[in-house]
Amino acid sequence: MPIHENGWTDPTGRAERVADRDEAAGHFPLTTLGYHCWRELDYLPATRDLLPVALAEHVRAGQRALDVGCHHGAAAVYLASLGLRVLGVDINPRAIEAARQHRPDATSRCRPEFIVADFLRDRVAAAGSIDVVVLNRFLTCLPAVEDWQDALSRALELLTEGGLIYVGDFLLMPACPHNRRRYQLAHANGGRWGNFAVLDDQGRPSFVAHHHSVQELRRMVSPYRVLCFRRFSTRSRHGHASRMFELIGVNERRPV
């Protein structure tokens, strides 16, 4: 098993083999592969389903939840199993079509509603009407800092007083040579630090994603009282290590 600097291990030995592909990706205009390119993507997420189970002890049946970037609906179905009234939104019509095929668990008290919507442009709910906003691996899809900030502002606007925000997403992994190289290439191509191109089977950039810094975590939680925060590691579908975090915050600011 190759062992790299800072003790990072590459169980597949793949890091060196993809260097040339990453170098080629650096010549593409990565700044054009922002959030809205997800509208047309037909893909499987790189990371296995990660459900917001930490919410279970903080929510109650009948509350209204919004799952932003719900993809194929796994998290929304889980939230519905807790008795929440769930609206799942995604910019990708194929994702919503797949989500609607979910059959609720026999113990579920509610069935999620799924709609195609652009969270950054469309009005998906009235201000102050949502009890729980879930951003489960959604912010990673927003490589442009303006979109990232807009999403967080919109989430806060939708929450009721005392409402909860759940964020589950990826942390920076600069100790991994493969990821550090990807960050450097995207940064040199006009992206913010932590952006990187995700390549298709032909080695072409399919979309740009983002891994989060500690400073960005602080900005996320600044409007909220934090109920829980944890960091953990998981594996992608291809066996790569991923550093992740999840947090739950309470909106204690009264609407203006």
From TrEMBL:
| Name listed for the protein in its UniProt record | Methyltransferase domain-containing protein
Transcription among the record's keywords?
A: no
| Matching PANTHER family | TRANS-ACONITATE 2-METHYLTRANSFERASE-RELATED
* One Pfam family this sequence matches: Methyltransf_12
- Its Gene Ontology biological processes? methylation
Q: Which UniProt keywords apply?
A: Methyltransferase, Transferase
Top-rank taxon, per record: Bacteria
Question: InterPro entries, per this entry?
Answer: Methyltransf_12, SAM-dependent_MTases_sf
- All copies of the Methyltransferase type domain together span 66-165
Organism of derivation: Candidatus Accumulibacter proximus
Keyword flag Signal: no
Gene Ontology MF terms? methyltransferase activity
